[in-house]
Amino acid sequence: MKSNISKHPCANKCTDFKEEQCKTCLVPDAKQWYDVPNHHILEQSEKSDFLIGDVVVLNQYAGDFAKSNNALYELIAFENKLETLAILSAKSGLEVRSGIEYLRPATVAELQANRRLTEAEQALAEVS
Fold it and tell me: Which superkingdom does the taxonomy of this entry point to (predicted)?
């Protein structure tokens, strides 16, 4: 790890700053501290399976809310740069925030039914 002493804002000002970093006011640069490449965040967001405007459903693992609410949602925004937290909007006007691991794209049968289908209904729709 490279030293960031030259970037220290207290150099030649703070009595705690000697030859070592001042532990009270130095905040290390995260990229330097964790040695994260610059393109890491871009690679993560480019790998997102979802795009703004996608119609999605909450999958069965999303908890009690998903079990009681079978609406289709439009993905209207991402709440963070890594695109792991999605903001969704239902036709009813309900706005929901969900991790993308709890989403899946709506199937053609679900789009036609205008709701999330149960596994049994989904199986029947695939056969017919």
Answer: Bacteria
